[in-house]
Write a structure and sequence with these properties.
Structural class: alpha/beta
Helix content: 25-40%
CATH class: Alpha Beta
CATH topology: Rossmann fold
Oligomer: single chain
Largest sheet: 7 strands, mixed
Shape: globular
Strand order of the largest sheet: 3-2-1-4-5-7-6
Strand content: 15-25%
Distance between the termini: 27 Å
Number of domains: 1
Amino acid sequence: MTDRPKSIQLTPELHEYLVAHGTPPDAIQRELIEETRSRLGEAARMQIAPEQGAFMTLLCRAIGARRAIEVGTFTGYSALALARGLPEDGRLLCCDVSEEFTAIARRFWEKAGVDHKIELVIGPALDTLRSLPLERETDIAFIDADKDGYQAYYEELLPRIRPGGLILVDNVLWGGSVVDPGAHGRGTDAIRAFNDRVAADDRVEKVMLPVSDGLTLIRVP
């Protein structure tokens, strides 16, 4: 390992530059970002970063995804990104427990013209996942929900991902606290345990990227 990592800390100015030089958020995405921020305040930090959304759309298209699952939808930005990467007959299953947050999501999915691709199920995600056929027909999945549940969601999704499919996992750097030996807490300890579990899992290929708050890509052979 090098003592001079190539990854750099993003300043607000550098982040703006980075977003502008990829596929930037369109008018609907910008409106969703602003409404989430103005209505929910500090909770808006749960929304994924715009460059992560662009990356997820690109990944869907790159692997030819047609079937997707999302665990944790919030106000719908990540689902919008995934749905836009699917073909017209593609399908995205979203799992969430909040009627309040997902009501915002539904409006923006309709505005973006992707609502026909999305099925939203309100209820515990584990129940929803366990009700699905145990068949390897999902192309891509995204986990961004309660951190205590990450390992269980991962284990339920793994046998349902088709060969060559992907699982994306958000917040794996947890603000940097994963490497602070003095940092403890329910979320911190859960993320550490999940990261260690995936790192040791020889059933899959994986890479952890410094995208936003950390994004792990897991490929299922």
